[in-house]
Amino acid sequence: MNYQFDWQLVLSGEYSQWLVDGVIVTLKISAVSLLFSMLLGTIVAVMRMTKFKPLEWLGLAYTEFFRNTPLLVQIYFWYFGSSQVLPDVVNKWLYARDFEFAAGVISLTVYTSAFIAEEIRSGIFSIPKNQLEASRAVGLSFVQAYRYVILPQAFRIIIPPLISQALNLIKNSSLVMVIGVMDIFYMAKQIESYSFHGFEAFTVATLIYLSISLVVSLCINLYDKHFLRQISY
Amino acid sequence: MRFDVVYENFDYFLWGAFPEGPLGGLAMTVILAAVSIFMAFWVGLAFGLMRNSKKFWLRYPAMAYIELVRGTPLLLLIFWFYFLAPVILGYSVPELQTTVVALVVFTGAYIAEIVRAGIMALPGGQMEAARGTGLSHFQAMRYVILPQSLRNMIPSFVNQFVSLTKDTSLASTIGVLELTRCAEQVSNRTLNAPMEIYVTILVMYFVICYCLTSYSRRLEKQLSRYQARDR
Questions:
Q1: Where, by residue number, does the polypeptide cross the bilayer (chain A) (predicted)?
Q2: b/e code B180-206 from CB counts within 10 Å (16+ = b)
Q3: B83–A71: do the CB atoms touch at under 8 Å?
């Protein structure tokens, strides 16, 4: 093994700036996708809880399809395939902006929301049924009952699994580099091909992912210890 | 819609250029997934037991392995092996082997957690009773704890198999000729039907994974009857 380590190269100067830019892109794409997938996931979960059959089946088909297909192929689909279906005006508008980023956000959102919908549904299931009956009896409408009684309780229970889904999202966001979104992993690869010092760049990228995930799992443990035990029926 | 492109290349999606050239496509995806899950099972079992051990010199390395691997994206792991192997071994390893090693190391950590949780879910009395009848710790594990807990873990293993099948698509990034890579090639060659091609690939993955998921759901229902519980 005759490899000259050169940490100075990666940790200072232009390359370190690349890595910082990459971290920012990773965090940005994760945050945007997480926000959208929470919204979409809640909608799909509530769709599956309704008594209206077509909506229920639509929600079921959505979660089953996107949970059981690889994210990478979904990314390719949205990036290469979507322009064929979208009208030209939308395509022009998208290509004028950051189309890679948009395709990345769409695929991450659709993929993650299918998982989040399942978590939310199991959270709603764990709320005793008479909660809904009671709130309907008090005179709340179905939407109000969900809005004010069921969802606030359900969300408190599913915060730990939701956080670990968020963590998965951050890790999965490394896949968007295949379509050229310049995230931390893309930058590490870039440094490797410019300077042949892939080891240092990959080490830094790994440490960043690792520290994010360790901090997040620490938070989950703290939450479990201090807050979850207060919830009881 | 130009599904004729898909139709013409359908056998390429299924088994690549097989009789004339190397095996690829869906067949390669299935083989990759099956081989990796088999090896990852043993790795995961070993590390899961180590993680549960009372001896710190067994527990801490297992913890380090599990946390390290679960904290890094699979794509990064694949690239680590892809760059690391030539430097350490002095010669380049074929992409296929690199992928299998990366998938085994990655999935092994998740299976180790399943094994740990499965063993912890058994009532503590099982171990005590087994030790009480005079079995050693190893024998108690081998004959009493593992047979019961492994049966309960089967649904989780199937789920892990599903996500492994999905993860094999990442092998395409270093050039293994599996389903995703074949689709990319056809898409680059024909240029006029990317959407149709990727929809076909998505459906192919979906069929496999959905069968497995619904099978694991049925298993879960069946097996829950035989569980040992605390009373």
A1: 23-47, 169-189, 201-223
A2: bbbbbbbbeebeebbbbbbbbbbebbb
A3: no
**Are the Cβ atoms of B198 and A192 closer than 8 angstroms?**
no
Q: Tokens standing for B76?
A: 């990064």
pLDDT by residue for chain A (233 residues), tens digit each? 566 777 777 777 788 888 899 999 999 999 999 999 999 999 999 898 888 899 999 999 999 999 999 999 999 999 988 877 777 888 888 777 888 899 999 999 999 999 999 999 998 888 888 888 899 999 999 889 888 988 888 888 888 888 889 999 999 999 999 998 899 999 988 888 888 877 888 888 999 999 988 888 888 888 877 776 665 54
Test mutation, B6, B68, B79, chain A, max A CBs within 10 A: B79
A/B interface, count of CB pairs below 8 Å:
113
How far apart, in whole angstroms, are the C-alpha atoms of residue B137 and residue B108? Answer: 24
Instruction: With beta carbons less than 8 A apart as the criterion, state whether A34 and A112 touch.
Output: yes
Distance CA B163, CA B209 (A): 8
Q: Which domains does chain A have, with CATH numbers?
A: 7-232 (1.10.3720.10)
Torsion angles phi and psi, residue A25, rounded to 5: -65, -45
Chain B residues 142-171 with CB within 8 Å of chain A: 162, 166-170
Residues of A in contact with B206 (CB under 8 A): 64-65, 68-69
ipTM: 0.90
